[in-house]
Amino acid sequence: MYISKIKIKNYRLLIDAELEVDAKTTLIVGRNNTAKTSCLACIENVLNGRPFSFDDYPLVKRKTLYEIIASFMSKEISFESLCEQLEPISIEFLVDYSLEDSEDNLGALSPFIIDVDIDTTTALIRVEFRLKPDEKVLWKTLEESYYQNGVFAPSDEARDVISTNFSKLFELVIYAVNPKNPKETQIKKHKELEELFPFHIIPAERLLGEDGTQNSSLSSLISEFFEMNEEELDPNVAEKVKELRAIVENANKNVQKQSDSILSSLVNDSVGFGYPNGEELQLGVTTQLSIDDQIKNQTQLSYTAGTSNECLPSTYNGLGYKNLIKMEFLLAAFAKKIEKCGNACIPLLFIEEPESHMHPQMQHAFAEYLEAFLGKITSVGIQTLLTSHSAHVANTMAFSKIRYAQKTKEGVIYRNLNSFEQENPDNSDFIRKYLTLTKCDLFFADKAILVEGASERLLIPDMIDKCDKSGDFSSQKYKLPAQYYTLIEIGGAYAYKFIPFIEFLGIPCLILTDIDSVSGQKGKNGQVYYKSVPVSCGETTSNETLKWWVRKNKGLSYNDKAQINLADIISMSSGDKTRGKCHIEFQTKENELCGHSLEEAIRNVNRSHYGLSDSPTEDDLEFSGKCKTDFALKLIYECTDYNIPAYIKSGLIWLNDQKVLE
Questions:
Q1: In 439-481, where does DSSP find H-type helix?
Q2: How confident is the model at residue 307 (pLDDT cuts 50, 70, 90)?
């Protein structure tokens, strides 16, 4: 059995969010401030049985909350109506037990199965932080701030009183719900929920003891072996721990006996005031030595060179390795804890930003082998939820395990990349391979720019800076340079494959591509082949993305073989160049000429720098260099005041003006 879906309502940015959960590992990715950590925090809060604070209640819902409470205090609505209208913070767990045998003992899930239909294989659990059913306490708490001399006159402090007393006026209530009849519920105890979902969280802020003090968390993890019962220990280490404990116990006894004798003699010899005399009790000393305490408090990790057996302290190793080692210890400890439950519960593991301090290759290895590692240390199925800002972690995971957190004006929603994969089988495999190979950070960007090649990748950041300094972005308070955009080098032959994915993620995207004009010519065998020609001589384009775009505008299918005329591309209006959140730009006519590529377009608008006359021909614009990267770098360093081609400037201004939230 496992959690298949989690629904969160009215918690921070999660106004009405539904998270589909993988049976083993679920990775939540997204830009900053998209409620990745909030999702785990909400679940942790509920499983710990802690009350929510007023800060957890969504800002967009507070006005309604104040109005409803005011209606009750003015006696316009009853207390029962107040309880019905106030929207609680809530979370639902949908548990799938379809893989369990009908005669199996469902263990800790049993109290939450209230549907008698034997064909039902899901259990629904809802936890609400709702108003306590005590009208007198509510009235007593709020009356003073809503009434002056017996007259209804809400004071300015009324909202503060609600905020301050929020956790006192509301309470956690746990329901078992009939999935086929949501109105049929049973109230359950928190202990029952706790037994069903044992959980462990590895937070993003992990103290690694790098300062060399005795607070090293790694050392404390090792010393915890002394606190565990023998039956709790892993069989692989139990014998060694028992051997160490025996040594420590014998050493304790010997040291204790010798130190007591020596110190007692020392004390008696030192006392010279006639007390005690021989008839009275004699002084002695009993020391409370404990070698095992010393081991617990003084144990630290060290690193040994394999060839020389020389040791270095833990502080001399990198934080990335220490982070990985600590997580391995924590995972092993959690696995051992849940072994007692067997398969009678659903263990949950939360890991926030596992990539902390890790270099890219280590991040990739962690993401790739996490499930295998958990399978190695325990036979109990653990459902893991991770959050990450790492493209290396995200691009290692299968699409089926990734949930993209998208922020909208209505709150955060979680998009299941598995659904995109199923809806776009032709594109998803390509995108998956491309993301894996390039490690692009599309999941974490506010906006995206798809470009042709290396020249654009080098020049676009500089061009964005130039546009900003020249005031082209002044229409927006937060300009493009201050936004987190990702630059993806994809080329006109494949950019169109990314468009459905960009639309799925819901982020604004600018596509800068080449017009790639070609003309058909007959070969010796009579077949027509297309040759690159100046734009003025072009019949069509070899650019697959431009072809795809025009077909979409005309309502044609992708497989339509009709030739796309170059005139249809050149004549596109600004509106024709925009589809949803995607906008495409390509070379346009400037100074009576139209370049065939980025390099030609740059040469056209920077003629003097390239030694061209005032009236060059299209042939004069042709880029004859061998390296486009050198062309871009020379332009940046040799001509700081170069002009930006109009199509690029137009595209960047469009992207600057786009709102991230819709």
A1: 454-469
A2: low
DSSP string, 376-403: HH-SS--EEEEE---HHHHTTS-GGGEE
Return the ∠ at Cα 629 (arms to 623 and 633), rounded to 5°: 100
Alpha-carbon distances, residue 145 vs 130, 149, 472 (angstroms): 22, 11, 52
Closest CA to 382 of 8, 20, 26, 7: 26
Q: Which residue has the tokens 């959960």?
A: 21
The pair of structure tokens assigned to 168 is 């006192």
Residues 123-158, buried b or exposed e (16+ Cβ, 10 A)? bbbbbbbbbeeeeeebeebbeebbeeeeeeebeeeb
Beta bridge partners of 448: 486, 509
User: What number is the average pLDDT over the span 95-104?
Assistant: 78
**What is the Cα–Cα distance from 239 to 247, expressed in whole angstroms?**
12
* Token couple for 376: 């190695």
What DSSP letter does each residue of 507-525 carry, written as one string?
A: --EEEE----EEEEEE-TT
Task: Report the DSSP beta bridge partners of residue 408.
Answer: 411
Residue 350: which H helix or E strand, with range? Answer: strand 348-352
Q: What is the 3-state secondary structure (H, E, C) of 75-110?
A: CCCCHHHHHHHCCCEEEEEEEECCCCCCCCCCHHHH
User: Cα 178–179–181 angle (5° rounding)?
Assistant: 65
Q: Which amino acid makes up residue 282?
A: Q
Interatomic CA distance for residues 437 and 394, integer angstroms: 12
- Please give the pLDDT value at position 40: 95
Query: Is-cis flag, bond preceding 198, omega within 30?
Result: no
Give CA separation, 450 vs 348, 492, 508, 571, 649, in Å.
Answer: 39, 9, 11, 22, 15
| Cβ–Cβ < 8 Å for 414, 17 | yes
List the beta bridge partners of residue 90. Answer: 9, 128
Give the pLDDT of residue 300.
52
Angle of the 454-469 helix axis to the 646-657 helix axis, nearest 10: 70
Distance between CA 212 and CA 488 in Å, rounded?
42
Digit-coded pLDDT (tens) for 254-279: 766 776 566 556 555 544 444 444 44
pLDDT score of 245 more than 80: no
